[in-house]
Amino acid sequence: MSALISETLSDAFQQVRLSYDRIVNRLSRCAMSVMNLAVRLLQLFCVTLLYFSAVKSAYIPKENGGSTNEVVPFTDVYNKSMCRPREMLVEVHQEYPDDIEHIFIPSCVVLMRCAGCCNDEMLECKPTATRNITMEVQKLKPMHLKRNYPMSFAEHTECECRVKKAMQDKTEKCDKPRR
């Protein structure tokens, strides 16, 4: 009799174990389905967000009600590309490379610098006249007070297309008599 009870209990435990395994298996499949759904929804959200950000950044408002197919005349293009002083952002650390223990606020300043095209590969846009300009910049040093300091920067006032340094060296070598 005890063998029969033992066998019946063993069968009952085995069926409970099988039922438990089936439940766990179904729950894990259900959890995987929920996770897949969450991933798909997240992907859909990201694609939608990317689409709307691209649409927003691609919008270019019309200036003065002009058409979108307006062609900029050659003279305007040429004049805007010429070698001349232009407003440029220059990092303070670029002008003061030895002053590495400070943090500057702002970290860059607007200066007039030579830039533009020279229409010849042997030429580059270089300054012919400069002036000093003094600006107040905050200098921060860790564990110290921040203060405003006057700092001098070189601004370009006149520019000219000049022969590149590498080209000058080549022409000087060619001008020397050969032995």
UniProtKB/TrEMBL annotation:
InterPro entries: Cystine-knot_cytokine, PD_growth_factor_CS, PDGF/VEGF_dom, PDGF/VEGF_growth_factor. SMART domains: PDGF (SM00141). One of its GO terms (molecular function) is growth factor activity. One of its GO terms (cellular component) is extracellular space. Transmembrane segments: none annotated. Signal peptide: none annotated. Residues 70-166 form the Platelet-derived growth factor (PDGF) family profile domain. SUPFAM superfamilies: Cystine-knot cytokines. GO terms for biological process: animal organ development; cell differentiation; induction of positive chemotaxis; positive regulation of angiogenesis; positive regulation of cell division; positive regulation of endothelial cell proliferation; positive regulation of mast cell chemotaxis; response to hypoxia. Keywords: Angiogenesis, Developmental protein, Differentiation, Disulfide bond, Glycoprotein, Growth factor, Mitogen, Secreted, Signal. It is found in: Secreted. PANTHER family: VASCULAR ENDOTHELIAL GROWTH FACTOR, VASCULAR ENDOTHELIAL GROWTH FACTOR A ISOFORM 1 PRECURSOR. Belongs to the PDGF/VEGF growth factor family. This is Platelet-derived growth factor (PDGF) family profile domain-containing protein. It comes from Hemibagrus guttatus. The lineage of its organism: Eukaryota, Metazoa, Chordata, Craniata, Vertebrata.
